[in-house]
Design goal:
Blueprint lengths: L7 E5 L3 H13 L3 E6 L2 H9 L3 E7 L2 E7 L2 E5 L4 H9 L3 E4 L6 H13 L8 E5 L6 H10 L9 H5 L2 E3 L2 E4 L13 E4 L3 E5 L14 E4 L3 H24 L5 H6 L1 H22 L3 H15 L8 H5 L2 H4 L7 H9 L5 H11 L8 H12 L2 H9 L8 H13 L1
Parallel strand pairs: 1-2, 1-6, 2-5, 3-10, 6-7, 7-8, 11-12
Antiparallel strand pairs: 3-4, 9-11
Helix pairs in contact: 3-4, 4-5, 7-9, 7-10, 7-14, 9-10, 9-13, 9-14, 14-17, 15-16, 16-17
C-alpha cells in the first residue's frame, strides 16, 4: 500500500545484513525503509543520521552507495508505531535470525489486522539463512496467539507470503564503522513469485523471481553455507585467523572441496542441475569465500554452531539425505566433527551451550538433542561416534 511519499517497506533487523543488503535493494528500488529493531544503540544511531554508506568489495575494487530515505523505530519501546507503519506498507522484510521470527510475528499480525480492506495485499518476505523461513514466519503469524481464529480467513486475504533465498557475504566490520557496512559485491536474492500471481510481485530491483525456489535455496545452503562454515570450523580447529587463511591451507582447502563434492552429488541428483553447472558454481563459491579483502574471521563465520548442526541445516541436512541415498558423507562428517569442537568461543553463546550439552549428556542423547536426528536414521550412529570422540578429547 503506497503512502503519500511513495512506496514503503518495513524491515525487521537493522543489523549488517538488513542495512547493507536488504535495505540497499529497497532503497535503490525507490522504497522508504522503516527499520524496526530492539537494539537501542542501532536505532538511536539511525535516528540521528540522515544517511550511511554501503561499500561493496570485489575483485574489481570497491564501490560505495549512500543509503537515505529511511526512518528507524524501536520495536521494543514503540511497538504501536511499528504496527501503524505495517498497516500502510507495501512490503515487510526481515533479517533477524530464524530463532527470532516468533517474536516479530505478533507485531506483523497486528499490522495486518490494521490494514484497510480492499488495499493491495502486504508482501511479506523473510530474508534468512534457513529453508522456508517465510513459511515459518507465516505459521507464527497465523497462530491463534497472534491472529484470532475467527479472523484468520479474512486477514489471509490481506497478505502474500513468499519464501526467498539470499546469498551475500557480510564480513566482520571495522570497529569504527558505525552504521556503515562493508559487503561483498556479489549477490543473489531469489524470491518465489507464485504467491503474487493475482496481484503482481513487488518492484524490487535485483531480485530474481522464480516459480520453483527450492533448488536455489538448497543449492545455496548446501554449497555457500556448507563451504563457508566448513572452512571456518576446520580453520578454527587449526588455529587460522580468517577464511582466506584457512582456504590457503592445502589440507583445509581439500577437505572443504571434498565436502562440496558430496553436497554437489545431492544437488545434481535431486534438482537436475548439470554436473558442469554445479562444479562451476562450487568453484565460484570457493573463490568468493576466499576473498582476502573481506577479512572474514573464522570465529564470526562459525558462530551459532547449535543452529548450524541442526536437522535441516548445512551439514546434517545434506548428509542425512545422502545417507538415505546410500552415498558417501566422509568429508561432511569431518566438517561435523570440527563443528562439534567449536566450543566456548568468546562472544558466542551457542558455542558455550554446545560445550555444556556435551558435558552434561551422553553421546546418544547429545546427538539427538543437537542434531534432531532420529536414532533409527542411518546417519545417527556415525554422528554419535563423532560426539563420543569429541567428548573424550
Amino acid at each position: 500500500m503506497s503512502t503519500q511519499t511513495g512506496k514503503k517497506a518495513v524491515h525487521f533487523g537493522a543489523g549488517n545484513i538488513g542495512r547493507g543488503f536488504v535495505a540497499e535493494f529497497l532503497h535503490k528500488s525507490g522504497y522508504e525503509v522503516i527499520f524496526a529493531d530492539v537494539m537501542d544503540s542501532i536505532i538511536n544511531a539511525l535516528q540521528k543520521a540522515s544517511s550511511y554508506e554501503v561499500t561493496e568489495i570485489g575483485g574489481e575494487g570497491e564501490h560505495k552507495n549512500t543509503i537515505t530515505n529511511y526512518r528507524a523505530i524501536n520495536s521494543k519501546t514503540h511497538e504501536p508505531d511499528v504496527i501503524k507503519e505495517i498497516s500502510s506498507a507495501d512490503i515487510v522484510t526481515c533479517a533477524v535470525g530464524p530463532n527470532i521470527l516468533k517474536f516479530i510475528a505478533p507485531v506483523i499480525a497486528k499490522g495486518i489486522a490494521g490494514r484497510a480492506e480492499g488495499t493491495k495485499p502486504l508482501a511479506v518476505i523473510a530474508c534468512e539463512n534457513a529453508i522456508g523461513a517465510t513459511d515459518t514466519l507465516a505459521g507464527f503469524i497465523r497462530d491463534p496467539k497472534s491472529t484470532p481464529a475467527d479472523k484468520l480467513e479474512e486477514y489471509n486475504k490481506r497478505v502474500c507470503y513468499a519464501n526467498s533465498a539470499i546469498d551475500r557475504i557480510v564480513p566482520g566490520q571495522d570497529a569504527d564503522a558505525g552504521l556503515n557496512v562493508k559487503i561483498e559485491s556479489f549477490y543473489e536474492w531469489v524470491v518465489d513469485k507464485t504467491p503474487f500471481e493475482k496481484y503482481g510481485y513487488p518492484d524490487i530491483k535485483g531480485v530474481k523471481w522464480v516459480d520453483n525456489l527450492k533448488p536455489y535455496i538448497e543449492r545455496k545452503l548446501f554449497t555457500v553455507n556448507t563451504g563457508h562454515a566448513a572452512a571456518a570450523y576446520h580453520g578454527y580447529h587449526q588455529g587460522k585467523k580468517t577464511i582466506f587463511d584457512a582456504l590457503s591451507d592445502k589440507g583445509i582447502h581439500e577437505q572443504v572441496s571434498k565436502a562440496l563434492k558430496e553436497t554437489s552429488r545431492l544437488i545434481v541428483d535431486k534438482h537436475g542441475i548439470s554436473e558442469q553447472e554445479q562444479a562451476a558454481y562450487v568453484q565460484k563459491i570457493i573463490q568468493r569465500i576466499s576473498n582476502p579483502y573481506l577479512e572474514d574471521v573464522v570465529e564470526r563465520v562459525g558462530r551459532a554452531p547449535l543452529r548450524k548442526l541442526s536437522r535441516k541445516e548445512r551439514f546434517i541436512g545434506p548428509a542425512s539425505e545422502l545417507m538415505e541415498r546410500g552415498q558417501s558423507v566422509e568429508a561432511l562428517l569431518g566438517a561435523i566433527e570440527v563443528a562439534f569442537r567449536f566450543q566456548n568461543v568468546e562472544g558466542d553463546e551457542e558455542s558455550v551451550e554446545l560445550a555444556k550439552i556435551l558435558k552434561e549428556h551422553g553421546a546418544k542423547d547429545a546427538t539427538a538433542k543437537i542434531t534432531g536426528l532420529e536414532a533409527s536414521h542411518p546417519l545417527f550412529e556415525k554422528v554419535e561416534s563423532i560426539v563420543a570422540k569429541v567428548q573424550k578429547a
